[in-house]
Amino acid sequence: MSVSFIRRIASPKKALTAAAVAAATAGMALSAAPAQAAPASASSAQAIAKKMIPDAAQFNAFSKIVSHESGWNPTATNSSSGAYGLVQALPASKMASAGADWKTNPATQIKWGLDYMNSRYGSPVKAWSFWQANGWY
Length: 137
Known about the structure:
The chain is mainly α. It folds into two domains: 1-35; 42-134, no CATH class. It contains five helices and no strands. Helix 2 packs across helix 4 (106-120) and helix 3 crosses helix 5 (124-134).
């Protein structure tokens, strides 16, 4: 057998082996990475709020505010003011008082929003009345 023939056979094997090692390494790296949660949908954020706000009138008022402010998008960001999240907190970092996952967890944002509406206005219904009169809350 000639050396050139052996090289032609060996080269594809080396390439295949290198590709297999690279794929295995990439696979190991991908499997070692933490899974990222999918962003919450508007309907799942609404379902969370409905569980957290059992009173229908309070939920409806909260829902109207959130619909106007963020369209139930937990990552909604106002480009001019920096307000963020379902309830458009400003500064956004205020929501950290409700939980470290405030940037991504609708339940944390809802909890903070409810606390804010209750402490500032007395209830989501009263916050909605203010919003209707002023276009903000």
